[in-house]
Amino acid sequence: MSRKLRVAPSDIQLEQVDAPLVLEFFEHLQTDRRNSSRTRNARLAAIRSFMRFVEHRVPSVLDQVRRVRAIPAQKSDTRLIGHLSLEQQVDVGGLGSGSDTPAPSRRCGLPRLCGPDGTSTRQKNGAHSPPSA
To answer: Is 59 helix (H, G, I), strand (E, B) or coil?
Structure first.
Protein backbone atom coordinates (compact mmCIF):
# COMPACT_ATOMS: atom_id res chain seq x y z
CA MET A 1 0.00 0.00 0.00
CA SER A 2 2.69 2.46 0.98
CA ARG A 3 4.60 1.89 -2.29
CA LYS A 4 1.56 2.74 -4.39
CA LEU A 5 0.75 5.79 -2.28
CA ARG A 6 4.45 6.71 -2.03
CA VAL A 7 4.31 7.39 1.68
CA ALA A 8 5.70 5.64 4.73
CA PRO A 9 3.30 3.07 6.23
CA SER A 10 2.95 5.20 9.36
CA ASP A 11 1.87 8.19 7.22
CA ILE A 12 -1.05 6.52 5.41
CA GLN A 13 -4.25 8.42 6.07
CA LEU A 14 -7.56 6.66 6.68
CA GLU A 15 -9.11 8.39 3.67
CA GLN A 16 -6.51 6.72 1.43
CA VAL A 17 -7.52 3.19 2.42
CA ASP A 18 -10.35 2.13 0.12
CA ALA A 19 -11.63 -1.18 -1.28
CA PRO A 20 -9.57 -1.13 -4.52
CA LEU A 21 -6.39 -0.45 -2.54
CA VAL A 22 -7.13 -3.31 -0.12
CA LEU A 23 -7.88 -5.67 -3.02
CA GLU A 24 -4.62 -4.66 -4.69
CA PHE A 25 -2.80 -5.38 -1.43
CA PHE A 26 -4.35 -8.86 -1.29
CA GLU A 27 -3.34 -9.48 -4.89
CA HIS A 28 0.22 -8.50 -3.97
CA LEU A 29 0.16 -10.92 -1.04
CA GLN A 30 -0.93 -13.85 -3.16
CA THR A 31 1.14 -13.26 -6.29
CA ASP A 32 4.37 -11.57 -5.20
CA ARG A 33 4.67 -12.93 -1.67
CA ARG A 34 3.00 -16.30 -2.42
CA ASN A 35 0.71 -16.18 0.61
CA SER A 36 -2.20 -18.57 0.78
CA SER A 37 -5.85 -17.61 0.80
CA ARG A 38 -5.93 -18.46 4.51
CA THR A 39 -3.34 -15.71 5.14
CA ARG A 40 -5.36 -13.32 2.98
CA ASN A 41 -8.52 -14.12 4.94
CA ALA A 42 -6.72 -13.59 8.26
CA ARG A 43 -5.59 -10.16 7.13
CA LEU A 44 -9.05 -9.39 5.79
CA ALA A 45 -10.51 -10.23 9.21
CA ALA A 46 -8.08 -7.80 10.87
CA ILE A 47 -8.89 -5.06 8.36
CA ARG A 48 -12.63 -5.63 8.79
CA SER A 49 -12.27 -5.44 12.55
CA PHE A 50 -10.38 -2.18 12.29
CA MET A 51 -12.95 -0.78 9.86
CA ARG A 52 -15.77 -1.74 12.25
CA PHE A 53 -13.94 0.27 14.92
CA VAL A 54 -13.53 3.23 12.53
CA GLU A 55 -17.14 3.07 11.36
CA HIS A 56 -18.45 4.47 14.66
CA ARG A 57 -15.73 7.03 15.21
CA VAL A 58 -15.20 8.67 11.80
CA PRO A 59 -18.58 9.15 10.11
CA SER A 60 -17.05 10.97 7.13
CA VAL A 61 -15.61 7.68 5.78
CA LEU A 62 -18.70 5.55 6.33
CA ASP A 63 -19.25 4.65 2.65
CA GLN A 64 -15.59 3.79 2.21
CA VAL A 65 -15.65 1.59 5.34
CA ARG A 66 -18.74 -0.26 4.12
CA ARG A 67 -17.08 -1.01 0.78
CA VAL A 68 -13.97 -2.37 2.48
CA ARG A 69 -16.06 -4.47 4.89
CA ALA A 70 -18.01 -5.87 1.91
CA ILE A 71 -14.89 -7.54 0.47
CA PRO A 72 -15.64 -11.28 0.59
CA ALA A 73 -13.33 -13.87 2.09
CA GLN A 74 -11.65 -16.14 -0.40
CA LYS A 75 -12.56 -19.81 -0.36
CA SER A 76 -9.75 -22.13 0.57
CA ASP A 77 -9.25 -25.86 0.83
CA THR A 78 -8.91 -26.88 4.44
CA ARG A 79 -8.12 -30.32 5.68
CA LEU A 80 -10.55 -31.60 8.24
CA ILE A 81 -7.75 -33.25 10.19
CA GLY A 82 -4.65 -31.13 9.71
CA HIS A 83 -2.40 -32.89 12.19
CA LEU A 84 -2.53 -36.41 10.73
CA SER A 85 -0.46 -37.74 7.86
CA LEU A 86 -2.17 -39.38 4.90
CA GLU A 87 -1.35 -42.86 6.23
CA GLN A 88 -2.82 -41.98 9.63
CA GLN A 89 -5.97 -40.63 8.00
CA VAL A 90 -6.35 -43.88 6.06
CA ASP A 91 -5.85 -45.88 9.27
CA VAL A 92 -8.39 -43.82 11.21
CA GLY A 93 -10.91 -43.82 8.40
CA GLY A 94 -10.44 -47.44 7.47
CA LEU A 95 -10.28 -46.45 3.82
CA GLY A 96 -7.84 -49.24 3.04
CA SER A 97 -10.09 -52.02 4.34
CA GLY A 98 -11.64 -54.59 2.06
CA SER A 99 -15.12 -56.02 1.88
CA ASP A 100 -14.71 -58.01 5.14
CA THR A 101 -16.09 -55.13 7.20
CA PRO A 102 -19.47 -55.57 8.89
CA ALA A 103 -22.53 -53.86 7.45
CA PRO A 104 -23.10 -50.46 9.06
CA SER A 105 -26.00 -50.03 11.45
CA ARG A 106 -26.03 -46.30 10.74
CA ARG A 107 -24.17 -43.88 8.52
CA CYS A 108 -21.24 -42.11 10.11
CA GLY A 109 -21.57 -38.31 10.34
CA LEU A 110 -17.87 -37.53 9.87
CA PRO A 111 -16.83 -38.59 6.36
CA ARG A 112 -13.08 -38.34 7.04
CA LEU A 113 -13.42 -40.71 9.99
CA CYS A 114 -15.54 -43.27 8.13
CA GLY A 115 -14.81 -46.10 5.83
CA PRO A 116 -16.31 -46.26 2.34
CA ASP A 117 -19.23 -48.29 3.69
CA GLY A 118 -20.15 -45.64 6.30
CA THR A 119 -18.92 -47.48 9.38
CA SER A 120 -16.84 -45.66 11.92
CA THR A 121 -13.53 -46.90 13.25
CA ARG A 122 -15.21 -47.91 16.51
CA GLN A 123 -17.74 -49.99 14.59
CA LYS A 124 -14.97 -51.72 12.69
CA ASN A 125 -13.25 -52.58 15.95
CA GLY A 126 -16.44 -54.10 17.39
CA ALA A 127 -17.21 -51.38 19.95
CA HIS A 128 -20.58 -50.63 18.33
CA SER A 129 -21.55 -53.80 16.58
CA PRO A 130 -25.04 -53.82 15.10
CA PRO A 131 -27.69 -55.61 17.13
CA SER A 132 -28.29 -59.20 16.11
CA ALA A 133 -31.75 -59.98 14.78
So the answer is: helix
